[in-house]
Write a structure and sequence with these properties.
Layout lengths: L1 H12 L3 H14 L4 H16 L3 H17 L6 H17 L3 H12 L5 H13 L1 H5 L40 H10 L10 H15 L3 H14 L4 H13 L3 H14 L4 H13 L3 H17 L4 H17 L3 H14 L4 H13 L3 H14 L4 H13 L3 H14 L4 H13 L3 H18 L12
């Protein structure tokens, strides 16, 4: 377990969160029922949060708290505070603001670490930027300074099942599925009302985190009719979100065998391959998806997602010029994709085109003024151009949006350090170390710290 924890921390520090989650699975299995198990769950929750799987983060935080509160003899007050903070953050991202505030308040009742207590107070005071950015793109920007520190592995997240439609919360899943099927709104439906209702219900089960139930439903469909593309897509997505990526690849492959032109299956399998570390297979799938959409004359908006995903993969592979081309095309295809403009800025800055990078990042924040990472990346681009005052102004802007953004604090510290303002640098480094330790326990600020 010690070696596994070391691997988990190393993967998180490098931004490889999907791989870190796979490592954390082993930690959770081996953690037993005490504080070690709670720590493993809390760590995995942190990794889920970083790739915006907020329901998974919520689940792990609640499980960790249940273990900590079950037996006061094993309860770490600092770990409890961390769990309450992270749980509240996840709920805020899910637009469940009242619940988020309730969990932060629960954390304040724990008498433990002063910094953790102050962090919870700040959450309640400002509502936390999570609520302001809940509509942000599903792919947060990596904050990094140079080509050697950038990675997009954390950005390659698995999509949820196709969304059938949004219906009022008061309606049961069964009623929702029936209405969607009746209206013919089931993605990859077969035109049979009863089968389409089952597909829609399966999608809804996946999207509400009930992966075992969804898997059984889709398996039943496949047993009766092994040629339904939607069943393989749905079950594969359930497997992927539950962490069984190899079974997911198998199901997405079956969907492709049934319909070789199903671009969605290629995108999902590509994302699963990327999470498994098979970058070339992932790239092949994403290339196929982009080419199929182009050949079919699909609307530009439909092409934006696979283009963005391919850009992230090429960014991870350090093919920055081609990644920039993909992000530019994704942004052009869907003018509201602030994440694509942000990543385009990262690529251009890495390639040495600082002025162009700043233009792209300015478009990202114009579309989404609360995009703290884009503000941070723009500040870093100005720093790379040697513009201390402008860079400091933008780092401050990012920290106004989220005073607890450890990466922005660290990079602002580096700005101060380079300008000889060592006292200010030390203050930022110390604060960054405290905040990043709450995300990855054992993590500390150092000259080797990577954004």
């Amino acid at each position: 377990p010690a070696l596994t924890m070391e691997a988990f921390l190393r993967q998180c520090a490098a931004g490889h969160f999907p791989q870190a989650i796979a490592t954390a699975d082993a930690l959770v299995r081996d953690g037993g029922i005490g504080e070690a198990a709670a720590l493993a769950l809390c760590n995995r929750a942190a990794a889920y949060f970083r790739i915006e799987l907020f329901k998974h983060c919520e689940r792990d935080c609640r499980a960790a708290l249940a273990l900590l509160l079950k037996d006061s003899g094993v309860a770490s007050t600092v770990l409890q505070q961390t769990c309450y903070t992270r749980l509240g953050d996840a709920l805020a991202k899910l637009n469940r603001t009242a619940e988020a505030k309730a969990e932060w308040s629960n954390g304040l009742r724990v008498q433990g670490d002063l910094d953790a207590h102050l962090t919870l107070q700040e959450r309640l005071k400002v509502g936390h930027s999570a609520t302001a950015t809940s509509a942000a793109p599903a792919l947060p920007a990596p904050v990094c300074a140079t080509a050697t520190t950038t990675t997009a592995a954390s950005q390659l997240v698995l999509k949820q099942a196709p969304q059938p439609a949004l219906l009022p919360d008061k309606e049961s899943l069964d009623e929702a599925a029936a209405q969607v099927a009746t209206k013919g709104l089931v993605q990859f439906g077969v035109g049979n009302a009863e089968i389409d209702k089952t597909i829609a219900l399966g999608y809804l089960q996946v999207n509400t985190g009930k992966f075992d139930v969804a898997t059984k439903m889709f398996s039943g469909l496949i047993l009766k009719n092994p040629h339904i593309v939607a069943a393989y897509l749905g079950r594969g997505t359930a497997y992927a979100l539950a962490g069984d990526l190899r079974k997911a690849v198998t199901d997405f492959t079956c969907a492709i065998d049934e319909d070789p032109h199903c671009h969605d299956a290629h995108v999902r399998r590509g994302q699963a391959f990327a999470a498994l570390g098979d970058d070339q297979s992932a790239l092949d799938d994403l290339n196929t998806a982009v080419n199929h959409l182009a050949a079919s004359g699909a609307p530009d908006a439909d092409r934006a997602e696979p283009l963005h995903q391919r850009g992230l993969l090429r960014f991870k592979m350090r093919n920055y010029a081609r990644a920039a081309a993909d992000f530019k095309a994704a942004a052009a295809s869907d003018g509201l994709r602030s994440a694509s403009w942000n990543h385009l800025g990262l690529c251009l800055n890495t390639l040495g085109s600082g002025a162009e990078a700043i233009d792209a990042l300015a478009k990202a924040v114009a579309l989404q003024p609360s995009y703290r990472d884009a503000w941070t990346n723009m500040a870093q681009a100005w720093r790379d151009l040697g513009e201390y005052d402008k860079s400091l102004q933008l780092f401050n802007r990012a920290l106004e949006l989220d005073p607890n953004h450890g990466q922005a604090l660290y990079l602002r510290g580096m700005l101060h350090f380079g300008a000889g303002r060592h006292r200010e640098a030390l203050e930022d480094f110390e604060r960054a170390a405290t905040l990043l330790a709450q995300v990855v326990p054992g993590f500390s600020a150092s000259p080797e710290l990577r954004g």
